[in-house]
Automatic annotation (TrEMBL), chain A:
PANTHER family: BRANCHED-CHAIN AMINO ACID TRANSPORT SYSTEM PERMEASE PROTEIN LIVH (PTHR11795), HIGH-AFFINITY BRANCHED-CHAIN AMINO ACID TRANSPORT SYSTEM PERMEASE PROTEIN LIVH (PTHR11795:SF371). Keywords: Amino-acid transport, Cell inner membrane, Cell membrane, Membrane, Transmembrane, Transmembrane helix, Transport. It is found in: Cell membrane. Belongs to the binding-protein-dependent transport system permease family. LivHM subfamily. One of its GO terms (molecular function) is L-isoleucine transmembrane transporter activity. Coiled coil: none annotated. This is Branched-chain amino acid ABC transporter permease.
Automatic annotation (TrEMBL), chain B:
It comes from Cognatishimia coralii. InterPro entries: AAA+_ATPase, ABC_transporter-like_ATP-bd, BCAA_Transport_ATP-bd_LivF, P-loop_NTPase. Residues 6-237 form the ABC transporter domain. GO terms for molecular function: ATP binding. Belongs to the ABC transporter superfamily. Keywords: Amino-acid transport, ATP-binding, Nucleotide-binding, Transport. The lineage of its organism: Bacteria, Pseudomonadati, Pseudomonadota, Alphaproteobacteria, Rhodobacterales. It comes from the Bacteria. Coiled coil: none annotated. This is ABC transporter ATP-binding protein.
Length: 336, 237
């Protein structure tokens, strides 16, 4: 029984939150890795692209709520999601037309594009705060739990409870759908294959008659969609706060690099590696250990390896270890 | 004699604004023929071929394909016109499967490509066995077959190969040459640059020996192989 209780506590406090967080990171890292693989630069504006997409969803959700549209037990934000994706696509395409295309035509070096993307980042950052303000916005509605602690305890008679938030469930489901769609597109469709070809060997892609501007266009559209989905899911799960998305940049980049930049499968794996490391290292293990260890060995402290305030350090450390020992990432990516 | 199918006529030019590398160089090829460009290192063999493909700044002279002047077209536009080009290096999509490589070769086509793919598989049976394998995992000789197969997928009117046997073993080289002869028998004109001058000239209908960006000797493969000057200078006696 103690073992079961420990398992439930572990699921409740580590596995479930980390799975949801990992899905969000994976979606973010997919966007970063696609830009890196196809447009060949590290897009620092990605966090704020997520913020912008999520912001549209938040505003639309408020509007839907005010005119009485709801999505039953599901968050209204899911209804707003398609429109938010369109809005975000519009923003990145305008940015590409106004900014990135100029540098592409100059055949600017990747490092220049990185700096350019930082500029874009600041502008998007300002734009989002200007429109919605820097404060927290709560926009999750509908049922709060798929299964709540009390229900679970009544159901199983265990002392430990297990809760699955609706947003966590939705995060995982939506992430799986997005990833399946993305891989279907990249591996099965002509356009998707041409994007992979362009990423693999730009010169040969040109020789094969692949139009680079079309590839770039589709890439931005997909990236904007992924970023919006990631941003909305993260916002639903936690809250929406513009600055947080900027902070998310580090774990997202860490995920993309750990998995192998330019490799979509790696981005997903990297997302979960980072999320699980972050959660396990900042989790106070006392509760789980209390069930598992004999009474006299029970820990006095919280058995928390690192305070949650330092959670970003975890991504950093993993990033450094990977860069030192396996610069191309866990999956075969491009070396950084 | 009527005008050749593909001809680079007295071309002078170089890369970008750099110095001239080719000097009044003429290279041509006809249907059913294999034309080979040989010569010492740095003689401008590959450059000569790239000039025909539009990767060079041609300052004088012209390139004609089937009587049409294509001197000012971009390489991509020349692919659409029916020129197939296999670069010397990075000539395959390493992360994609063999079949996807072939599909990408046919990217500009909107019609059914399955028949052409079948032809490529018949020509290179090993590729059929490896069709679902990533091209980057294949051996050097197999990679070259993928590269040539990719170029054939556009159903080109002329095929240009830049050192197709670079870095493969002599046995594989012989096999590649056999395949190239097979392709040529279908009537497709083939122009290739080769390091292995003797073997290449043996299968060539027409040979160009280039030295310092100029045509040094021109003739049929047999003539060049028999020419004492060519033998002494380029074929090791």
């Amino acid at each position: 029984m103690d073992f079961l209780n420990a398992l439930v506590a572990l699921l409740n406090f580590v596995v479930i939150p980390a799975t949801a967080y990992g899905s969000q990171l994976a979606l973010g890292a997919l966007g970063v890795t696609l830009i890196y693989g196809i447009l060949r630069f590290s897009n620092f504006a990605h966090g704020d692209t997520m913020a912008f997409g999520a912001m549209i969803a938040v505003l639309l959700t408020f509007w839907f709520q005010s005119i009485g549209i709801s999505f039953g037990p599901l968050p209204t934000a899911l209804l707003a999601l398609p429109f938010a994706i369109l809005g975000c696509i519009a923003l990145v395409l305008i940015t590409d037309r106004l900014v990135y295309r100029f540098y592409r035509e100059q055949k600017a070096k990747p490092v220049i594009l990185v700096i350019v993307s930082m500029g874009v980042m600041f502008i998007m950052n300002g734009l989002v705060r200007f429109i919605i303000g820097p404060d927290d916005q709560k926009f999750a509605d509908g049922e709060r739990f798929i299964i709540s602690v009390r229900e679970f305890k009544q159901l199983t008679g265990l002392r430990e409870g297990l809760a699955i938030k609706t947003t966590q469930g939705i995060t995982v489901v939506v992430a799986v759908i997005a990833v399946v769609l993305l891989f279907w597109f990249l591996n099965r469709t002509r356009t998707g294959k041409s994007m992979r070809a362009y990423s693999d060997n730009e010169d040969l892609a040109l020789l094969s008659g692949i139009n680079p501007e079309r590839v770039v266009l589709y890439t931005w559209m997909i990236v904007a969609a992924l970023a919006t989905v990631a941003g909305v899911l993260y916002g639903l799960d936690k809250t929406f706060k513009p600055f947080v998305f900027f902070q998310l940049l580090l774990p997202i980049f860490a995920a993309a690099i750990v998995g192998g930049l330019g490799n979509p499968l790696g981005a997903i794996a990297g997302g979960f590696v980072i999320a699980f490391s972050e959660v396990t290292i900042t989790y106070a293990w006392k509760k789980v250990l209390r069930y598992l260890l004999p009474e006299n060995l029970e820990p006095d402290g919280l058995v928390q390896l690192l305070s949650t305030d330092y959670k970003f350090a975890v991504s950093f450390v993993i990033l450094i270890i990977v860069l030192l020992f396996r610069p191309t990432g866990l999956f075969k990516g491009k070396s950084v | 004699m009527s005008e050749p199918f593909l001809i680079g006529d007295t071309i002078t030019g170089g890369y970008g604004n750099g110095p001239d590398i080719l000097h009044e160089c003429t290279i041509s090829v006809n249907p059913g023929e294999i034309a080979v460009i040989v010569g010492p290192n740095g003689a401008g063999k590959s450059t000569g071929m790239k000039a025909l493909f539009g990767m060079l700044n041609v300052r004088s002279g012209s390139v004609k394909l089937d009587g049409e002047d294509i001197t000012s077209l971009s390489p991509q536009a020349r692919v659409v016109k029916g020129m197939g080009f296999v670069p010397q290096t990075s000539n395959i999509f390493t992360s994609m499967t063999v079949e996807e490589n072939l599909e990408m070769g046919a990217f500009i086509r909107t019609d059914d490509i399955s028949e052409t793919m079948e032809q490529v598989y018949e020509l290179f049976p090993i590729l059929r066995d490896k069709r679902d394998q990533a091209a980057g995992e294949l051996s050097g000789g197999q990679r070259q077959q993928v590269a040539v197969g990719r170029a054939l997928m556009t159903q080109p009117k002329v095929l240009m190969l830049d050192e197709p046997t670079a870095g493969v073993s002599p046995i594989v080289m012989d096999e590649l040459f056999d395949r190239i002869i097979e392709v040529s028998r279908t009537g497709l004109p083939i122009l290739m640059v080769e390091q292995n001058a003797r073997q290449a000239l043996e299968i060539a209908d027409k040979g160009y020996v280039m030295v310092q960006g100029r045509n040094a000797y021109t003739g049929t493969g047999k003539e060049l192989l028999a020419d004492p000057e060519v033998r002494k200078s380029f074929l090791g006696g």
